[in-house]
Amino acid sequence: MAASLDTLERNLSKRGYAVSRFASRGDAVSHLVDALSGETVGFGGSVTLDELGLYEALEKKNTVVWHWRGKGEEERGRVAEFTVFLTSANAVAETGEMVNIDGTGNRLACSLYHPRTVYFVIGGNKVAPDLASAVARARNVASPKNAERLGLDLPCAKDLRCHDCASPNRICRSMVIHMRPMSGAAHTEVVLVDEDLGY
Residue 9, SS3? Predict the structure, then answer.
């Protein structure tokens, strides 16, 4: 894991991202708590962020908006209030591209436009050697596990591989490949954690 994270860290920096790297999840959480005091923080749906306990850690000194903890759909519409958006990635290539797949689009939209500061928090388990492998990981690892977690009646939830199905319950509806920080964001940071986090 360490070798691929070393390469990834260099390549993300070359692409213009701010990069911070931590040996443990606790150190990553402490970094984010220190960096984000007094902000209005929006969360994208993320098992990684949930496993880190970031909502609970940040709500002490921030206004925190997350549809997983709040009022569902009502919370998704509050994006204009965010000064910071936190999310993860379904996969990241060692070459520096981050891949995310979404069903409703709120997570993708917020990572692309409006919040002035965006953080991607990524565990070492999500690193793939190249972009094609990262896309394959997003489609055949992260998305099926999310379908399984949600208890959806989808073929991928049964055998944990993508069938490119036409189900009305399909959660893979859009894919974004982040190649460089968006020009509208004042600060985009990738927080790498030398641990397995999320899917």
Answer: helix
